[in-house]
Amino acid sequence: MGEAVAQAAGGVGAASARDAGGQSYGQAAWRRFRRHRLALVGGGLAALLSLAALLAPWLAPYAADRLALGTRWAPPGPGHWLGTDELGRDVLSRLMHAGRVSLLVGYVVAVNVAVIGMVVGAVAGFYGGVVD
Questions:
Q1: Which of 10, 70, 95, 114 makes a 20 to 30 Å CA pair with 47?
Q2: φ, ψ for residue 15, nearest 5 deg
Q3: pLDDT (tens digit, 9 = 90+) per residue, 102-124?
Q4: pTM
């Protein structure tokens, strides 16, 4: 019924939201994305790093703030995969915990930009003219 009302009002119906193959735009975009191997590798790697950052409290081999002055500047090895820093802290654990902060900042910025963009777009669409 919604499609008939939209077409009667001169708008576009749900059928126009599909491409020639009968797929929605989202399905067509996903199909194109799956065909690009490099995009899949990049997306998988980004998902893996994000998951490692989110699960850092459980996956990290050491606490991020654990000091071990006896192992200062230790090179990478079986005990510390990326070595230690000047205070003996495990670099891998610190990177995993730091990823959490980076993800949080990225998501907060993305949400703020989306909200600001919607408000500016709504005001420009409503008033038009000079505001647009």
A1: 114
A2: -65, -30
A3: 999 999 999 999 999 999 999 99
A4: 0.69
How far are the Cα atoms of 69, 104, 130 from residue 126, in angstroms, in the given order? 63, 33, 11
Instruction: Give dist(CA 49, CA 126) in Å, integer.
Output: 42
The DSSP-derived string for 21-38 is: TS-BHHHHHHHHHHH-HH
Is 90 exposed, middle or buried (CB count within 10 Å of its CB: 0-12, 13-18, 19+)? Answer: buried
CB-neighbour burial class of residue 7 (10 A; exposed 0-12, middle 13-18, buried 19+): middle
Residue whose pair of structure tokens reads 């006896």 in the numeric block: 70
List % helix, strand, coil for the chain (3-state, nearest 5).
65, 5, 35
Q: What is the pLDDT of residues 41-98, one digit of tens each?
A: 999 999 999 999 999 999 999 999 999 999 999 999 999 999 999 999 999 999 999 9
- Phi and psi at 24, nearest 5°, equal -75, 170
Sign of CA dihedral 119, 122, 125, 126: negative
Tokens (6 digits) for 13: 């119906």
